[in-house]
Sequence to fold (253 residues):
Amino acid sequence: MLRHNDWGEADRILGLYTLEMGKLRALAKGVRKLRSRKAGHLEPFTRVSLLLARGRDMPLITQVETLDPYLPLHGDLSGVTYASYVVELLDRFTYEEGENQDLYRLLVDTLSRLCVLEERDLILRYYEIRLLDLVGFRPQLFQCVHCGTEIRPEDQYFSARLGGALCPRCGSQTEGAQPISLDALKHLRHFQRSSFAEARRARLNPALNRELETIMQHYMTYLLERGLNTPAFLRRLRKEATKESLDQKNLPG
Ligand SMILES: [Zn+2]
Fold:
């Protein structure tokens, strides 16, 4: 469950991310009444099992059972802050557009990791890059997004507008491109193609964490502000991608 808003006198509208239906909203009736049996199960950042019934405007929650309350996250302010960030990011990058089971698993895994592991910053940086992947904005980190040459082991640039790394020659001439250290680039690449168990072996010092965070924030803010994550835009992207692959198949020879 992502968030809730009060509705009427005793009801609540819940924002959910589900395994089988992706993102959706559902109405929990009477949940704010004293001693409602459902209330305790319907807190933000909890994993629940729900039974839904068809409602007039949106599904109605008829039964709820907690699967994982992620208790350690609720216990301290920093836990709540980290979990809020995870949920907010997912919320902003998704629409009610049906299931994305990989994304659901990423969310569940990330919240569980935040409960039991100490390297919370690393968990978030890994989450960001995997999330971008799963919503269609995997940054290009291996070839220069302008000239296509292979990115060499040296300090580079990153362009939010072009969606990836730039070689030093292109980067210095591209408006809005930000410098990115070799170390930061290496870590982004590592996270992009590794399981969490592998990614976890990386050591993030505070300076490196800040650099990665700044670059990803800048990139994600750019995508969200331009509305590049809207359903219409994503459909267009997918259509172009299909057309491209069809064109390639139609090449003679
Ligand atoms: Zn270049």
Notes: The chain has a mean pLDDT of 88. The CA atoms of residues 141 and 189 lie 6 Å apart. Strands lie at 3-7, 11-18, 22-28, 47-53, 60-68, 156-159, 164-166, 178-180. The longest strand covers residues 60-68.
